[in-house]
Amino acid sequence: MRISHRSPRYGSALGMALILALAIMAFMSAHHLIVLFLSVALVMVLLAWHRCRQRNRQLYRRLHHPANHLGSHERLRYDRSEQRFRALLESLPRVAVQGYDRQRRVIYWNAASTQLYGYMPGEVMGCRFEELIIPKDMRESVVRAHQAWINEGVEIPASEIELLHKSGRHVAVFSHHVMLGQHTDNPLMFCVDVDLSVQKQAHRDLEFIQRYDPLTLLPNRDAFIAELDRLLEDRQSAPLAVFFIDIEKFSDINDTLGYEQGNHLLTLVAERLSQYCYTSDLLARFGNDEFVMACTQLDSRRHALQLIDRINSMFEMPFTLAGKPHRIRISQGISLFPDNGEDARSLVHAANVARNRARTPGESRFQIFSHEFHRDLIHQHELLKRLENAIDQDELALHFQPQISRSGRIESMEALLRWFPAGGGMVSPAEFIPLAERFGLMERLGSWSIDALCTQQAVWKTQGLTGYRVDLNLSGEHLRSTAMLEKLEKAIQRHQLSMRDVGIEITENVLVRADETVKAYLQTLYHRGMKIAIDDFGTGYSSLAYLKQFPVTSLKIDRTFVVDAPDNLQDRAILAGIVFIGHRLGLEVIAEGVETSEQLELVNELNVDLVQGFYYFRSMPAERITPLLETQPLFKGHKGPSSSR
Fold it and tell me: How confident is residue 362, by pLDDT bands cut at 50, 70 and 90?
């Protein structure tokens, strides 16, 4: 059977169906569009086939009339037409077609129906459809709808429904229906069912991804917030604690062992925390290495402290990563309901603020939220806004602290960034540098410092004050790439300085973790004459192997080893060991933090090359240090004239 320009009635009917489908497209999802097109088109084909079949039956009766002598050719055409149409219905992929008589008995069942519902044609022929694929709670309404269509012409609308498989499980389909011969004694209803299993599973997968973390299978932030709000509605004022937990130095795991092992660690942490939780507790992964837990079995603040200890004890046992044990430390922030918030977002925010406080150097690894934290946070944000404008408002300055040689002369200096707000006073670097590191301002501060240092060195050079190297501290943020080193090199060239006029100080950990391209760039600067010092030596990386691998010219002994060395034999031994190692490697050794005559006597006894500290000078602005460079006085075992202690 064909629909062509020679079948205008059926062609136009199908055309109208397609126009209707296009009109609905704007309101349907992608899989609905495909289903609608297939089902409408197939229904129109069924209608056209039914009309052609009625004509063919009349032709068949005429051909088989005893008075007809046209022969078997027309009969063969009729039979082939029937066969082609049945073959079409049988070959439709994922489109199940069933036919039912007036009593709802099966008269047709194609291969896709077998695949969709599990019944073979021989099992269903003559059976009523409500006994096969209609769920029990729908059977009565479906039978009434079928009768209303036959008797009153009320069509059954196309829709998404769930029908029954032979096994008893539900099958999601988009079902379209057509009634053939409605006004005859033998009306036939054909159902065109398109399998929506793939689309439904994709929808369920999407819903899962929207609510759950695919790695740990824990609820995500949105799901946790919604569930905690629901839980709080029923608690009234019963205590509850929210724990915000993150893994310390998690990025190191990814950097050293790879992301696969990092992900493995996250799943192991999720498993341990899940074992800790009661059934009424909530646990979620918020992202990266952050886990949040709501503990419902709480009766007091003291109980919260006990829970903290229990969680910490869980992490005392090492995790096996890449076949080796690794000890993991965590930071915890805790908020309490109802003291720190009455809804989920407030409690999570408070726990996060406490967690950030716990990560601050010098603080405990856990903190219970207090409103003081909130005040500190507001202060930090206000300070951050002022710091962002400090460069443009000319509030930054470089101060210089001399480094005195064993001969008693100023050999070099360290440039130190200072911030003097317009309102007066000075903001301590210990306060604004961590803030800049946390909120991404180190690049701007570094660029400003480089330009200010090179500008001042150029001024001293025009004044004939040459031979004094000035060292600049570079942080881990500065050495994430070669960009800051490139800026330093260009600034040196722009101000017509030499590589020996400017040095850099880098901590041990920053140097070891630097990217290979950064290390290669440091090698280039080193071979061109730039001095590179390891700052705070002895407080960071535990291996000394890097001293012969990396381009290092100087070691700066951290002040913690200098302060108590005159009276503490252990510190004295460490100090002597560092000096010995440095000299044996051909490195310059600098002692910083020298404040007393006893400390100075000791470092001189150990043959330290340069001394830096309050014993001689505090850091000072360029206009105060320039006279010292001009007169070059000797400083031998006494305080410099500019020092104030």
Answer: low
Beta strands in 122-210 (DSSP E): 159-164, 170-180, 188-195
d(Cα 295, Cα 239) in Å, to the nearest integer? 9
Q: What is the pTM of this model?
A: 0.54
In this structure, the number of other CB atoms found within 10 A of the CB of residue 343 comes to 15
Q: Which pLDDT score, from 0 to 100, does residue 139 have?
A: 95
Whole-Å CA distances, 260 to 212, 285, 322, 593: 20, 17, 10, 43
pLDDT tens for residues 61-92?
Answer: 555 555 454 445 555 555 555 555 555 555 55
Bridge partners of 321, per DSSP, are: 324
The single residue listed with the structure tokens 């799943």 is: 267
Helix (H), strand (E) at residue 501: none
Residue 175 and residue 128: Cα distance in Å, rounded?
A: 17
Q: Structurally, what CATH architecture does the domain formed by 8-202 represent?
A: 2-Layer Sandwich (3.30)
Question: What is the longest distance spanned by two Cα atoms in the chain?
Answer: 140
Give the end-to-end CA distance of the chain in Å, rounded to a whole number: 106
Contact 517, 490 (CB under 8 A): no
> Dihedral sign, CA of 284, 287, 289, 292?
negative
**Lookup: tokens for 150:** 């036959």
Fold of 403-631: TIM Barrel (3.20.20)
Q: pLDDT by residue (tens digit) across 521-537? A: 989 999 999 999 988 88
Structure-token pair, residue 246: 């993150």
CA 208, CA 115: separation in Å to the nearest integer?
28
Question: For the domain 212-369, what is the CATH code?
Answer: 3.30.70.270
